[in-house]
Specification:
Layout lengths: L2 H8 L1 H9 L1 H8 L4 H28 L3 H28 L4 H6 L4 H16 L2 H23 L11 H8 L1 H18 L4 H26 L16
Bound molecules: the ligand Cc1ncc(C[n+]2csc(CCO)c2C)c(N)n1.
Ligand VIB binds next to helix 4, helix 5, helix 8 and helix 11.
Length: 231
């Protein structure tokens, strides 16, 4: 069994929770609160700035020119296509250029991006790919699942999101990263594979927390006036 299949199978219970999150479900049904999506878009814009750096680090750690080229094109497509979608959504949701550029990361955005960057900077190429893969792979699966809901991809607000992440082009990028992880895992010892599994598990968990953060629009709790209620 390929290493990626082992991960995918083992983490199914958490993986399914991502698909079942109300943010994802309501996006598919077209009922998601606009404010939650707006919050998500701003945080995701910040997320993508940091995430793009993983591709740049991938190009640095690449083991051959072909890998280097693919990381460079992933960096290009994230900054120019995926972030273009965010800028387009920003217009739709009246998010000004200033708001986007001056936005502050929520605790989860900060924790998730810094965790990935730590692993990418300090780890092997296999560890870097293990950190970035749940992001690409889970969005592709979620995109495809939502695209099967009749009318979802045509929805006035959430349709473009579904179209982008379910696209064939996007699937090819995710597949390339899955194959790279499998190649990098070949011949590794069990303790080394366990380390990769742990990183993959953590970023899968962070994916869930990112949906949750957006759904409940969570910033630092102490920034709101303290009301004495138990949280
Ligand atoms: C929290 C969060 N997780 C995953 C993605 C999806 N994503 C981010 S970069 C990239 C690679 C191709 O551009 C993909 C698929 C996201 N946007 N936000």
């Amino acid at each position: 069994m390929k290493f990626s299949e082992r991960l995918h199978q083992k983490l199914q219970p958490i993986w399914r929770q991502n698909h079942a999150h109300p943010f994802v479900k309501e996006m598919g049904e077209g009922t998601l609160d606009k404010e939650a999506f707006r919050f998500f878009m701003v945080q995701d814009y910040l997320y993508l700035i940091e995430y793009s750096k993983l591709f740049a680090l991938g190009a640095v750690k690449a083991e051959n020119v072909q890998q280097m080229e693919t990381f460079a094109s992933l960096l290009h497509s994230t900054m120019n296509e995926e972030m273009a979608l965010h800028r387009q959504y920003a217009k739709k949701f009246d998010i000004t250029h200033d708001e986007l550029e001056n936005a502050q990361p929520s605790p989860i955005t900060l924790a998730y991006t810094r965790y990935m960057l730590y692993e990418a900077q300090n780890g092997t190429i296999a560890e870097l790919v293990a950190a970035l893969l749940p992001c690409m792979w889970s969005y592709w699966e979620i995109g495809k699942e939502l695209n099967e809901i009749p009318g979802a991809a045509k929805h006035d607000l959430y349709g473009e999101w579904i179209q982008m992440y379910s696209s064939e082009e996007f699937g090819q990028l995710a597949t390339w990263c899955i194959d790279l992880l499998d190649q990098a895992a070949e011949g590794k010892s069990e303790p080394e594979l366990y380390k990769l599994e742990e990183i993959f598990l953590n970023t899968t968990r962070y994916e869930f927390m990112f949906w949750d953060m957006a759904y409940y629009q969570q910033m630092w709790p102490m920034d709101q006036s303290f009301d004495g209620k138990k949280r």
